[in-house]
Amino acid sequence: IAMKKFNVAGASFRTEKIEFILEKYYTDRSEQDNDSYFVSNQPQKYTKYPIFRTNKVQLIAEPENKHDENAIKVLIYSVHLGYVPRNQTEEIHEELKNENEYIAEIKEDIKNQYSIEVSISKK
């Protein structure tokens, strides 16, 4: 059961990086491990990629961030794709102390813009 969820802030500025990840794991299915997969029950009419779900997610506190010393960056496959939204950093900092599993879902909308939702659950 997912304890907490958040939408990754700043993902819209990292479209190229998101597409790099999707491209890499979409074109060569053999490279896909069982921890990452595409959810294929999605209409393909408007979107290039199905929903991509993976547990290759890292949340890393960034106390040296000059805009916000509480910032937590979100990495998927070690690629920085955005941040925990500022209004949720306090509760997510608490979660960083626990043994959690992070699952990210990358979705594409009709305008071909990506959103990333991360859910946190106890291991």
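Above is the first protein from milestone M3; the second protein from the same milestone is given next.
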Amino acid sequence: MAEEFFVPKLGQTVEEVIMVGWFVADGEKVSQGQAVMEVETDKAVFPVEANAKGYIHLGPYKAGDVIPVLTVVAIIGKQD
């Protein structure tokens, strides 16, 4: 079963983040708890961990993009 991977809420006032980059490539196998992307808020840079294990299929986001929190940025599921 596929799991949606989204930008978590990183503070009470954080409404959007800047994507710093991915630590993994599209289609790469990931483990739950593995840092897969990095985002920046107005106060700090945070790694974001995978919420499931499987193969990650990245969305259209790239470094520098401003992304609202709770936005789905990838899917973690089967290889195909």
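Note on the second protein: DSSP finds no helices and eight strands in the chain.
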